[in-house]
């Protein structure tokens, strides 16, 4: 049985949440590079139901997206994190919206706009089952034939917006071959400003791991970052975002 005060009313907030609130009240955020900026981050996979117990998903832990949200909050931004199902704690100092499917995530993204920056780190499933079964499909039945429908492209949808488009729209490209070449094509096709490409082929340990190796692809060229912990990738990205937003338009 849980001790009194561990859950519900009367439970103490996490220490990091308390610290973030104290800094906010004392005005410490005003000295930070993203103070006054609104940042939207998506993270994790989406789950597209087949029946009440089965689903289609991508292999995403959400570690990179959550790290980016935390780093943006640490830099003083007002952060909204829209997360698919993950086994991670909510980062301190951010507004969190939990979703399941790609359509849920798109709806949450549109509600969270406008923002100065949108970072789409979620591994959104490209397809969903057109008509999920309302009951569990029995194993002793015939092998089901799944009719798939294409999910909305959240990155391209936001990148193509005519009104309230974020100043920076940043996407991720998880590739298993021709990483930079594919990312360059995706950059134009998705109408985004930056694309963070990584090699998630078997053996890299990036998908679900603690480290990441990024190729930052922009209209100006490609910059390759070293393999490093995901929180350091997040710190580098947020530093680059802050410097870019600080430049005269």
Describe this structure in words.
Helices cover 28% and strands 22% of the residues. Helix 2 packs across helix 6. It is globular, with a radius of gyration of 19 Å. The protein has a single domain, classed as CoaB-like (Rossmann fold, 3-Layer(aba) Sandwich), CATH 3.40.50.10300. By secondary structure, it is an alpha/beta fold. The model has no long low-confidence stretch (mean pLDDT 91). It has six helices and 14 strands.
Short description:
It contains six helices and 14 strands. The chain is of the alpha/beta class and 249 residues long.
CATH superfamily: CoaB-like
Strand order of the largest sheet: 5-4-1-6-9-10-12-13
Under CATH, the topology can be stated as Rossmann fold
Mass-distribution shape: globular
Say what oligomer this is: single chain
Order of helices and strands: HEEEHEEHEEEHEHEEEEEH
Please identify the structural class as seen in this structure. Answer: alpha/beta
Q: What count of helical segments does DSSP give? A: 6
Mean pLDDT: 91
Contiguous uncertain segments of 5+ residues: none
What's the total count of β strands?
A: 14
The percentage helix is 25-40%
CATH class annotation: Alpha Beta
Beta-strand percentage range? 15-25%
